[in-house]
Amino acid sequence: MITGKNQLGNSLSNLGTKSFKTFNPQQNKENEWNFFEANETEIETALKLADRAFETFQKASGASRALFLNTIADEIEALDDVLITTYCAETGLPEGRAKGERGRTMGQLRSFAKLVEEGSWVKASIDTAIPERQPFPKIDIRKMMAPLGTVVVFGASNFPLAYSTAGGDTASAFAAGCPVVVKSHPMHAGTGELVAHAINIAAKKTNMPDGVFSNLNSSGIEVGQKLVNHPLTKAVGFTGSIQGGRALFDMASRRKEPIPVFAEMGSVNPVIILPQALQLKGEAWAKTYAGSITLGTGQFCTNPGLLFAIKHDSLENFTTVLSEELLKIDASCMLHPTIQSNYSKNKSEMMEQDGLSITADLKTNTPPNFAKQAVVKVSGEKFISNTKLHQEVFGPFSMIVSCKDEEELVKAIQSMEGQLTGTIISENGEVDNSSVLVNTLQSKVGRLIFNGVPTGVEVCPSMQHGGPYPASTDSRFTAVGIHAIDRWVRPISFQNWPNHLLPNALMNENPLKIERLINGELTKRAI
Amino acid sequence: MITGKNQLGNSLSNLGTKSFKTFNPQQNKENEWNFFEANETEIETALKLADRAFETFQKASGASRALFLNTIADEIEALDDVLITTYCAETGLPEGRAKGERGRTMGQLRSFAKLVEEGSWVKASIDTAIPERQPFPKIDIRKMMAPLGTVVVFGASNFPLAYSTAGGDTASAFAAGCPVVVKSHPMHAGTGELVAHAINIAAKKTNMPDGVFSNLNSSGIEVGQKLVNHPLTKAVGFTGSIQGGRALFDMASRRKEPIPVFAEMGSVNPVIILPQALQLKGEAWAKTYAGSITLGTGQFCTNPGLLFAIKHDSLENFTTVLSEELLKIDASCMLHPTIQSNYSKNKSEMMEQDGLSITADLKTNTPPNFAKQAVVKVSGEKFISNTKLHQEVFGPFSMIVSCKDEEELVKAIQSMEGQLTGTIISENGEVDNSSVLVNTLQSKVGRLIFNGVPTGVEVCPSMQHGGPYPASTDSRFTAVGIHAIDRWVRPISFQNWPNHLLPNALMNENPLKIERLINGELTKRAI
Asked: Under CATH, to which class is B38-119+148-265+476-486 assigned?
């Protein structure tokens, strides 16, 4: 069933000479399939097909785009066991995770379907004419959101389904009316191909134009570079490392026509445990955090990599319990040997930093590609003066930062770069007296969490997944939830435009029955 | 009354050694005032004050920010004649224009005041908890828009009031809760200082923090460069040339922490006159367009620089009438000798292009700094093959592009870069049969106009002022109308956050009585 070919609109293609295989980290061996890297002709074909598809796809009704999205979800479900098996063979992740992520992916597709079927997301705004206004008549003007054009989506290593081929970026781009060209992630090209095939079947079943979707294989960076630099590409979605995301952002910014890049990148997700919480519930939080740090082998962008507290006996106790609990958890497999070796390397480099003590570091023998979880501890002073300590170690690793007082804690938070999340653990209302600390944390993050863990990203309208740089390249948008659609659209105004030629969303009759801002009032009424 | 000093929060300062004067183009002589260019210390002070002011300003209620904005409008009005006189002395524009622009500026300030006083603009979204949900409980999560931080605003040469010191960028940034540092435009530094003073009085009267606003003089590019590169700057607003806007965008993109730049840049605003309109109403449109081309000495970003039509006798007639009418209009003064000399140079260079015929070029003697309006004509074929012809000639200049058929016309539009506006002139419903043409035009512009002129930008919610690059650096935002506030804010989520610590907009009780998205339903109800 897996051909290893590139999906160019409705056709499969393997014109290139370069090929690669994916790897099963649990079995520590290559998978059987051979993937053909897209060559220049195939990149060109995918983008030209997408550009042609845009002509009709941008005009497709919300109902038909919803049908397309729902059918993609159905076709992914129809892949059934083969998808789960392939997912596990290419990631080392357990079946439960594969099924959970598949559920989330289908949920995302269906939530965007619901959004565009309802239709109000286009933010229709109408200011009607006032011909008698002095000194100049007011002319009728109407505005709505329209898609940007072809979106290039980069698959993410750690979310083969929810942030890759038919993940949130693709679902939101389709919902907006943008064709999508996916640069498949080389670590799970088989999973990607299966999903790409499902999308293609859905596109054909729902009469979408050929080229609305393409899936390109690549093992290196060249395919991605060519896609981002191509004049037919109009926006980019990326989830991955700071280095990778920044490289794409720089490339896109240097184009003759710069294009928006939404890159969701690294984050260490600071957690602040306030004194009373530490004293009264320190052990319980230590157990909870041992679980959060190791969840998914620590391979979540919301993994809690930094735990801040004020120096106290109870912090010693918390450290001991966290370290013990962490070592009780079974080691688990990482996504790929490269990710495992990077983890080992980054962990070692971190542990060699001056003033750092190691409070937990799994020493037992583990199978190949498994991560040895670890916790380290450092003073607030050392943390503030050494920005190397601020960097993410992607994997089941966390650092306790022991600050001498609240002032140093505030300074430590202030010294950090932007983050996806920031968490406050508080007991007996002690947070009420920490407004400077909370404000400082708020200025650094996209999401504030109270008495919880940052892992687990609820897909709902109120979720902000993104944050000040380098958490993402543009903190004004989110990668998760319905508002992720805003990344791929621009407003367009129609002045004095004939009613019968207006898009349905802006017609007098309000045929879509959507919420519209009419002369400043939000209403569903017709004009 | 004009001191020539920089306004640093509540203080005036002239630490630098460089100074300059503004110029009265009507009288062809320098104005009396001496302006002190901001030096490095002053730039640093302005940004540090702004950053400190942000701590409180970002938390100020909508009502208090509205009072600030309305008071700025009042204080600008209170400047009365001295503002109008200074404006005219520094721009060569007539008193009527000065008063009109002042009215628009006050209207903008008051419309943002109204927006933030009402409060729903923060897009509050609430998803309440479902503790019993399987397999995982759903946690309460809430989201709203929060300000980015200090915004640097560049004054625009052609709108000393509406796009400069207290113009749309400043008004929208204040409304969002962002402190503003203005880099005053050197051509109207006196007008800028008067308005800056008005803003400062308003800030003091309404108890805004010191540093919420600063105004820096500069005659070159260094002050702007330092402002954009400074780590405390969080976003940039600019209106001006493609070269200038792109330079700022490049600088901001290369920063360690890239920041958003909204630059509204050049546009030639294509107008397509369909065959029947040309035949039946060609003369009337020729007269209308002669007025639009010369309005404000052609110094509007929405000036119609390109008129497209299909070759026909009626196009000859249109060309003749437009040329005659244009020459009947009195020549008028440009903003500055530099702008006038650039106009002359760009016009001459354009007129030397191969295959171009000059159908109107004012030859009479005019006072210094006046622009000699002109119309030229070229074939569609030449236009498509020579992108030099696509460039803006800032001033009262327009080019008629005569296409051999509709196919060539579509190709000509397709060959263009992004534009602020695109206009269709149609008669007897002929536009109904031009869907390819209209779609092509739509893909290039931010605003489509039917049977009208692009000059005249109505300030209302449905106005899109911005467009595909290079009309602006990010087509997803507008520089005009209430949605301009979206440029300066980012979403922030609060997960499981204690109700009494939430921002008012997200509290259960809905104390601000704003529209909120609660579990997917737009409502003003409390929880």
From this structure: alpha beta
